[in-house]
Amino acid sequence: MHFAQSLSEGIDLRRFAVVGHRAMSKGKLPLNDLAGGAGRMDVLIRAVMSALLTSHGLRQDVEVVLHLQGGPGPHRRLKFIGSELRGFHAEERSVSGLIAKAIREPSPPIGQWIERTPGVYDGGGTLSETILEWKDSLLVRLDADAERLWSDGATLPNRGTAADQKIAFLLSDDQPLKSDEGIPRSLGSTWLQGHHAIAICHFLLDEGVQLNL
Known about the structure:
The protein is of the alpha/beta class. Helices cover 21% and strands 28% of the residues.
Protein backbone atom coordinates (compact mmCIF):
# COMPACT_ATOMS: atom_id res chain seq x y z
CA MET A 1 0.00 0.00 0.00
CA HIS A 2 1.98 2.97 -1.28
CA PHE A 3 0.21 6.32 -1.63
CA ALA A 4 0.72 9.90 -0.58
CA GLN A 5 -1.61 11.12 2.12
CA SER A 6 -1.98 14.39 3.99
CA LEU A 7 -2.45 13.69 7.69
CA SER A 8 -3.05 16.64 9.95
CA GLU A 9 -5.95 17.47 12.24
CA GLY A 10 -7.77 14.40 10.90
CA ILE A 11 -5.68 12.08 13.06
CA ASP A 12 -7.83 11.22 16.06
CA LEU A 13 -5.42 8.79 17.74
CA ARG A 14 -1.67 8.25 17.61
CA ARG A 15 -0.24 4.98 18.79
CA PHE A 16 3.33 3.93 19.52
CA ALA A 17 4.48 0.37 20.19
CA VAL A 18 7.96 0.20 21.70
CA VAL A 19 9.77 -3.13 22.00
CA GLY A 20 12.20 -3.59 24.88
CA HIS A 21 14.14 -6.74 24.02
CA ARG A 22 15.91 -6.90 27.39
CA ALA A 23 13.50 -4.87 29.55
CA MET A 24 12.59 -6.75 32.71
CA SER A 25 9.00 -7.93 32.84
CA LYS A 26 8.61 -8.94 36.47
CA GLY A 27 10.06 -8.26 39.90
CA LYS A 28 11.58 -5.30 41.73
CA LEU A 29 12.68 -2.68 39.24
CA PRO A 30 16.20 -1.40 40.09
CA LEU A 31 15.46 2.32 39.97
CA ASN A 32 19.15 3.20 40.26
CA ASP A 33 20.19 0.92 37.40
CA LEU A 34 17.55 1.36 34.68
CA ALA A 35 20.11 1.17 31.89
CA GLY A 36 21.78 -1.99 33.17
CA GLY A 37 19.97 -4.25 35.59
CA ALA A 38 16.54 -3.24 34.27
CA GLY A 39 17.49 -4.13 30.69
CA ARG A 40 17.57 -0.64 29.10
CA MET A 41 14.29 0.33 30.69
CA ASP A 42 15.64 3.89 30.49
CA VAL A 43 15.16 3.78 26.70
CA LEU A 44 11.50 2.81 27.07
CA ILE A 45 10.87 5.45 29.74
CA ARG A 46 12.24 8.21 27.51
CA ALA A 47 10.11 6.90 24.65
CA VAL A 48 6.88 6.96 26.64
CA MET A 49 7.65 10.46 27.91
CA SER A 50 8.29 11.76 24.37
CA ALA A 51 5.08 10.16 23.16
CA LEU A 52 2.85 11.59 25.89
CA LEU A 53 4.32 14.91 27.02
CA THR A 54 4.38 18.38 25.56
CA SER A 55 6.32 21.22 27.14
CA HIS A 56 3.47 22.12 29.49
CA GLY A 57 0.96 19.34 29.19
CA LEU A 58 -0.08 15.85 28.31
CA ARG A 59 -1.21 14.65 24.89
CA GLN A 60 -4.76 13.32 25.11
CA ASP A 61 -4.75 11.60 21.70
CA VAL A 62 -1.86 9.19 22.31
CA GLU A 63 -1.63 5.54 23.33
CA VAL A 64 1.72 3.86 24.05
CA VAL A 65 2.37 0.16 24.58
CA LEU A 66 5.70 -0.89 26.05
CA HIS A 67 6.70 -4.49 25.33
CA LEU A 68 8.80 -5.92 28.16
CA GLN A 69 10.60 -8.98 26.81
CA GLY A 70 13.58 -9.43 29.12
CA GLY A 71 11.98 -11.71 31.71
CA PRO A 72 11.85 -13.24 34.16
CA GLY A 73 8.79 -15.07 32.97
CA PRO A 74 6.64 -14.41 29.91
CA HIS A 75 6.56 -11.23 27.86
CA ARG A 76 4.50 -8.42 29.28
CA ARG A 77 2.86 -5.25 27.97
CA LEU A 78 2.21 -1.92 29.68
CA LYS A 79 -0.26 0.43 28.03
CA PHE A 80 -0.38 4.18 28.70
CA ILE A 81 -3.53 6.08 27.58
CA GLY A 82 -2.98 9.83 27.50
CA SER A 83 -6.62 10.81 28.06
CA GLU A 84 -6.83 8.73 31.24
CA LEU A 85 -3.46 9.35 32.89
CA ARG A 86 -3.28 10.96 36.29
CA GLY A 87 -0.12 11.75 38.23
CA PHE A 88 2.10 11.39 35.16
CA HIS A 89 5.04 13.78 35.51
CA ALA A 90 7.88 14.86 33.23
CA GLU A 91 10.54 13.11 35.27
CA GLU A 92 12.10 9.72 34.53
CA ARG A 93 12.05 8.51 38.11
CA SER A 94 8.33 9.25 38.41
CA VAL A 95 7.55 7.27 35.25
CA SER A 96 9.81 4.43 36.35
CA GLY A 97 7.80 4.32 39.59
CA LEU A 98 4.61 3.66 37.62
CA ILE A 99 6.33 0.83 35.76
CA ALA A 100 7.82 -0.56 38.97
CA LYS A 101 4.39 -0.70 40.61
CA ALA A 102 2.95 -2.64 37.66
CA ILE A 103 5.65 -5.27 37.27
CA ARG A 104 5.61 -6.13 40.97
CA GLU A 105 2.23 -7.72 40.31
CA PRO A 106 1.64 -11.11 38.61
CA SER A 107 1.42 -10.70 34.86
CA PRO A 108 -2.17 -10.88 33.55
CA PRO A 109 -3.03 -13.48 30.90
CA ILE A 110 -2.90 -12.61 27.22
CA GLY A 111 -6.00 -10.68 26.17
CA GLN A 112 -6.68 -9.22 29.60
CA TRP A 113 -5.77 -5.68 30.67
CA ILE A 114 -5.67 -4.68 34.35
CA GLU A 115 -5.50 -1.01 35.31
CA ARG A 116 -2.62 -0.59 37.77
CA THR A 117 -2.81 3.20 38.12
CA PRO A 118 -5.10 5.67 36.29
CA GLY A 119 -4.35 5.35 32.58
CA VAL A 120 -1.70 2.64 32.99
CA TYR A 121 -2.76 -0.89 32.05
CA ASP A 122 -0.91 -4.17 32.50
CA GLY A 123 -1.32 -7.18 30.23
CA GLY A 124 0.34 -10.25 28.83
CA GLY A 125 1.32 -10.79 25.23
CA THR A 126 3.74 -9.65 22.57
CA LEU A 127 3.89 -7.24 19.66
CA SER A 128 1.73 -9.66 17.67
CA GLU A 129 -1.17 -9.18 20.11
CA THR A 130 -0.74 -5.40 20.00
CA ILE A 131 -0.88 -5.40 16.20
CA LEU A 132 -4.08 -7.45 16.29
CA GLU A 133 -5.63 -4.99 18.74
CA TRP A 134 -4.61 -2.11 16.48
CA LYS A 135 -6.10 -3.55 13.31
CA ASP A 136 -8.13 -0.35 12.86
CA SER A 137 -4.93 1.72 12.56
CA LEU A 138 -2.61 2.51 9.68
CA LEU A 139 0.54 0.70 10.78
CA VAL A 140 4.00 2.17 10.14
CA ARG A 141 7.23 0.38 11.05
CA LEU A 142 10.10 2.82 11.54
CA ASP A 143 13.12 1.51 9.63
CA ALA A 144 16.17 3.59 8.72
CA ASP A 145 16.71 1.56 5.54
CA ALA A 146 13.20 2.09 4.15
CA GLU A 147 11.64 4.86 2.07
CA ARG A 148 11.36 8.23 3.75
CA LEU A 149 8.23 8.78 5.83
CA TRP A 150 7.39 12.20 4.41
CA SER A 151 6.69 12.81 0.73
CA ASP A 152 9.14 14.39 -1.72
CA GLY A 153 8.64 18.13 -1.88
CA ALA A 154 6.49 18.16 1.25
CA THR A 155 6.25 21.54 2.95
CA LEU A 156 4.61 22.81 6.11
CA PRO A 157 1.05 23.37 4.86
CA ASN A 158 -1.79 25.49 6.03
CA ARG A 159 -3.78 23.39 8.43
CA GLY A 160 -6.63 21.57 6.77
CA THR A 161 -8.92 18.70 7.54
CA ALA A 162 -8.75 15.02 6.65
CA ALA A 163 -10.84 11.96 7.38
CA ASP A 164 -10.56 10.85 10.99
CA GLN A 165 -8.16 7.96 11.31
CA LYS A 166 -5.71 6.26 13.60
CA ILE A 167 -2.00 5.80 12.92
CA ALA A 168 0.36 3.48 14.80
CA PHE A 169 4.17 3.46 14.78
CA LEU A 170 6.30 0.43 15.64
CA LEU A 171 9.81 1.00 16.98
CA SER A 172 12.42 -0.70 19.09
CA ASP A 173 14.99 -0.10 21.82
CA ASP A 174 18.71 -0.19 21.04
CA GLN A 175 18.27 -3.49 19.18
CA PRO A 176 16.76 -3.90 15.69
CA LEU A 177 13.04 -4.56 15.50
CA LYS A 178 12.44 -8.17 14.46
CA SER A 179 9.18 -7.68 12.62
CA ASP A 180 7.99 -7.26 9.07
CA GLU A 181 4.61 -5.84 10.06
CA GLY A 182 3.36 -2.52 8.78
CA ILE A 183 4.58 -0.15 6.10
CA PRO A 184 8.35 0.35 6.52
CA ARG A 185 9.31 4.01 6.56
CA SER A 186 12.47 5.92 7.45
CA LEU A 187 13.13 9.13 9.34
CA GLY A 188 16.57 9.32 7.74
CA SER A 189 19.62 7.15 7.19
CA THR A 190 20.97 7.82 10.70
CA TRP A 191 19.71 5.48 13.41
CA LEU A 192 17.98 7.74 15.93
CA GLN A 193 17.18 7.13 19.57
CA GLY A 194 13.58 6.07 19.98
CA HIS A 195 12.39 9.15 21.85
CA HIS A 196 13.85 11.39 19.12
CA ALA A 197 12.06 9.35 16.45
CA ILE A 198 8.76 9.73 18.32
CA ALA A 199 9.25 13.49 18.60
CA ILE A 200 9.80 13.73 14.82
CA CYS A 201 6.63 11.71 14.14
CA HIS A 202 4.65 14.05 16.39
CA PHE A 203 6.10 17.09 14.61
CA LEU A 204 5.14 15.77 11.17
CA LEU A 205 1.61 14.99 12.31
CA ASP A 206 1.19 18.20 14.31
CA GLU A 207 2.15 20.29 11.28
CA GLY A 208 0.15 18.27 8.76
CA VAL A 209 3.15 17.34 6.59
CA GLN A 210 2.22 15.11 3.67
CA LEU A 211 3.29 11.55 4.48
CA ASN A 212 4.47 8.92 2.05
CA LEU A 213 2.16 6.04 2.98
